[in-house]
Design goal:
Number of strands of chain B: 11
Shape of chain B: globular
Mean pLDDT of chain A: 93
Distance between the termini of chain A: 33 Å
Strand content of chain A: over 45%
Radius of gyration of chain A: 13 Å
Largest interface: A-B, 20 and 25 residues
Oligomer: heterodimer
Mean pLDDT of chain B: 93
Amino acid sequence: DPKIIQKPKYLVAVTGSEKILICEQYLGHNAMYWYRQSAKKPLEFMFSYSYQKLMDNQTASSRFQPQSSKKNHLDLQITALKPDDSATYFCASSQETGGDTLYFGAGTRLSVL
Amino acid sequence: QQQVRQSPQSLTVWEGETAILNCSYEDSTFDYFPWYHQFPGESPALLIAIRPVSNKKEDGRFTIFFNKREKKFSLHIADSQPGDSATYFCAAISGGSNAKLTFGKGTKLSVKS
């Protein structure tokens, strides 16, 4: 059974719309992350959370907002979608931040038309 | 700002040969260097990792060679098999609660039989 669940697996959106990507991890980890992967920028770090607190944000745009309602949840809200946002978004987790093995979810493949 | 540089972008070897993938870094505070592999349609997964207390780490056919002075590390895949065909990402991180794992751009390895 997958230990990091991402929903949905595939997502098609129209330009200007808003979507939420869901991530839940059942590894008992304290740190969670979002990474984005596209042909232009493989495995680009976006956010890191530790104990539900934002630790690092490398996303220039405020259109991307992480949301952590529980320790094992880290959703990603994306507003005013653009075609350039098309990518696979990976949620990941580790026991703690800094040097622990990162475990990735299966990803959400987002296409913005 | 690219903190981890990876080469080559793509590599083709014959079955049985040793594949060599290279990475270099700039930040001298980095103290953990993992390699991840990603098969088509799947998420990245940890393959092997090294800390700079040693200059070599072996796990079966996979070996990391680390050169702290030159800030370089490489992954050697001995006796390459067609099943090793994947994209390999090197990464680096420094300790600390704000640390994030920074990935190289990846090397697409093809092993021909």
